[in-house]
Amino acid sequence: MRLRSRTQRKVADRAARVVMVPAALAGIAVLAWILWEVISRGAGALNLDFFTQLPTPPGMEGGGLANAILGTLLMTVLATVIGTPVGLMAGIYLAEFGTTSRLATAVRFTTNLLMGTPSIIVGIFVYALIVLRTGHFSGWAGGVALAILMLPVVLRTTEDMLNLVPDELRESALALGAPRWRATLTVVFRAAKTGLVTGILLAVARVSGETAPLLFTALNSFYWPETISEPTANLTVTIFNYAMSPYADWQQKAWGASLLITVGILIVTVLSRFTLRDRKSRTWSR
Amino acid sequence: MNETTRQRRVDRAFRILTASCALVVIVLMGGILFELLRNSGMSMKEFGFGFLTSDAWNPGAGEFGAASSIFGTVVSTAIAMLLAVPLSLIIAIYLVEVAHPRVSKIVGGGIELLAAVPSIIYGMWGLFVFAALMQEHVQPWLGRWFGFLPLFQGPPMGIGMLTAGLILTLMVLPFITAVTRDVLQMVPPVLKESAHGVGATMWEATRHIALKYGRRGIVGAVFLGFGRALGETMAVTFVIGNSHRISSSLFDAGNTIASSLANEFNEASEPIYLSSLFELALVLFGLTLLFQTLAHFWVSRMQRQEAGSR
Predict the structure, then answer these.
(1) Within-domain flag for B60
(2) Residue A129 half-sphere exposure, CB side, CA atoms within 13 Å?
(3) Which of A11, A51, B29, B75 has the most Cβ atoms closer than 10 angstroms to its Cβ?
(4) Using CB atoms within 10 A of its CB, is residue A257 exposed (0-12), middle (13-18) or buried (19+)?
(5) Nearest C-alpha of chain B: how many angstroms from A239?
(6) pLDDT (average), residues B271-288
(7) Residue of chain A minimizing CA distance to B87
(8) Do B192 and B134 sit in the same domain of this protein?
(9) Which residues of B touch A262 (CB under 8 A)?
């Protein structure tokens, strides 16, 4: 470190402080602006029809996005049903059995890679895997793509949360004669329950706002999702299609759908964070 | 068969079940690589290595090259990282070292929420709100004062490479800030207090102690943001203009690998068109794998060095 005069050092410190406040304010102001635009432009589009009606043909006023809301819910549930059990089990392996095994090390590394894989790549993978083979777009394919995106998130959360459970708890269960699987699924899981549930909720919230993986898998549709073996309407692809259309009414619906998605995700995120923080503050203080 | 043997067998089965679920991750990763390779075979055979260097993109004539998409991906990511990394560091330092704890809590919480907002929302805002601002104010201003640079020439159209880079900046900002803030909060107070004790100013204690202590985490955070910027699709697709041209001006429309995929994948009717898009996807996948692996080894090398120096 170079030696500087007292004045120089004070000036540097003052300069850093002076730069910081406007930079932080600017960053936050822009981000608040985004939320404000979504709320103010989207609120006008939300009415009863929006939640209960099918879309109208291009250029016609009215109608709603009920089919897309239902489709997004369906595919998110499908993704959760597929992705969560696998993620939980894999997390159990890393935290309880594998820990330092070579497989576990490889799985941890690959999980990080999968987490960093762009979601559009996952969409294209599922297109090649399911859509090309079955010959048509489907809600199934969309759900599978979302499940693949959920998997690494659930896996990592599970491992982290199970690692927080003190070993004494496992030992006590085993000492009472419980087999390993029962000790894990009842005792350890129960101790880590809050963390696991919030972690899964966060993963669900994350995938429910994904667009890119659905573009080539679920596609979109103007009709009710009667079966998930055909193209399935969903909110995010609808936002994309409607925003790019020249119709003012569609663009407004896109803002409505944006508001709905944002609010939904933010509510889940806020609730989860509060629960997690609450949890952290009294983490095993015995 | 007695009870203990049965339980042991169930336990074994349970262990195998969990291990195979863990294996799913590796199988998936291999599957992605396999499918991308398999489906891009036709394009590889047709164009060879020239695919990576050719900027031709003419679906009608069956000519495809990845250069303009790779160029756009690199430029938009570079803009985002150049702006987002310093800004995120400044905001994180402000939140941890300077701001009143209550301010820090509220602002920090807001930033965490923004990391959860889906990318399509940034795209909507970028197209309908931010592009207009760029067209009416920012681009004319840049053109007037910095128009002598080739970077800022041409008509202000609102959408284009610069707008895409700025939207990406806003998208990765919350990520890098949130992680860096967590890293700085983990710095043991006694280290900072010692620095202050020997007379260091806030800035010196932060620069020489806190940033140095947390550099591994910060490098990780930067790579996290980098990976997101590289593969970000929807936000970019809305505002980049989607043109397969390489232009020196940041005002011009361009494309990234991800935005080309989003726009053209469902329209590709010819097998060679589809195969070229698969090869584009393979390039993007390869890039993200490469940088993540580099980040992994870099961070673990720093970890070893730190362990060695203590």
Answers:
(1) no
(2) 21
(3) B29
(4) buried
(5) 8
(6) 96
(7) A23
(8) yes
(9) 117-118, 121
Question: How far is the alpha carbon of A53 from chain B, nearest alpha carbon, in Å?
Answer: 23
Residues of chain B with Cβ-Cβ distance to A136 below 8 Å are: none
Whether residue A159 is found in the same domain as residue A227: yes
- Does residue B48 lie in a domain region? no
B33: number of Cβ within 10 Å: 15
The answer to whether residues B13 and B92 belong to one domain is no
pTM of whole model > 0.90?
yes
B91 and B26 within one domain: no
In a domain, residue B258? The reply is yes
Amino acid at A232: T
Ordered DSSP codes for A26-39? HHHHHHHHHHHHHH
Give tens-digit pLDDT for A46-95. 999 999 999 988 878 888 999 999 999 999 999 999 999 999 999 999 99
Number of domains in chain B: 2
For the stretch A142-174, pLDDT in tens is 999 999 999 999 999 999 999 999 999 999 999
Are B9 and B137 contained in the same domain? no
8 A C-beta contact, residue A63 and residue A56: yes
CA dihedral A206, A207, A211, A216 (to 10 degrees): 160
The candidate with the shortest Cα–Cα distance to B159, out of B252, B258, B257, B262, is B252
Q: What is the mean pLDDT of chain A?
A: 90
What is d(CA B86, CA A139) in angstroms, rounded to the nearest whole number?
42
Under the banding of pLDDT at 50, 70 and 90, the label for residue A244 is very high
CA distances from A285 to A157, A161, A280 (A): 21, 16, 10
Question: Domain check: are B11 and B153 in the same one?
Answer: no
User: Does A183 lie in the same domain as A61?
Assistant: yes
First to last CA, chain B: 56
* CA distance to partner chain B, nearest, from residue A52 (Å): 23
**Cα(B310)–Cα(B308) distance, integer angstroms:** 6
Residues A54, A168: one domain?
yes
Same domain, B99 and B205: yes
- CA A62 to chain B, closest CA, distance in angstroms equals 21
| Structural domain for B167, as ranges | 68-307
Burial environment of residue A106 by CB neighbours within 10 A (0 to 12, 13 to 18, 19 or more): middle
Contact A139, A229 (CB under 8 A): yes
Render pLDDT for B92-148 as a digit per residue (tens, 0 to 9). 999 998 888 998 888 888 888 888 999 999 999 999 999 999 999 999 999 888 988
Provide the 8-state DSSP code for B58.
Answer: E
Interchain proximity A31–B262, CB inside 8 Å = no
Total domain count for chain A? 2
- Strand pairing partners for B168? none
Residue of B nearest to A130 (CA): B35
Residue B54 domain flag: no
Question: How do residues B211-242 score in pLDDT, each as one tens digit?
Answer: 989 888 999 899 989 999 999 999 999 999 98
Judging contacts by C-beta atoms under 8 Å, the chain A residues touching residue B127 are 243
Res. B4 pLDDT band, cuts 50 70 90: confident
Task: Choose among A224, A216, A207: nearest CA to A240.
Answer: A216
Contact across the interface for A37 and B129, Cβ inside 8 Å: yes
Average pLDDT over residues B51-67: 92
Tell me the residue range of the domain where A104 lies: 48-281
The amino acid that residue A208 corresponds to is S
> In this predicted complex, what is the ipTM?
0.93
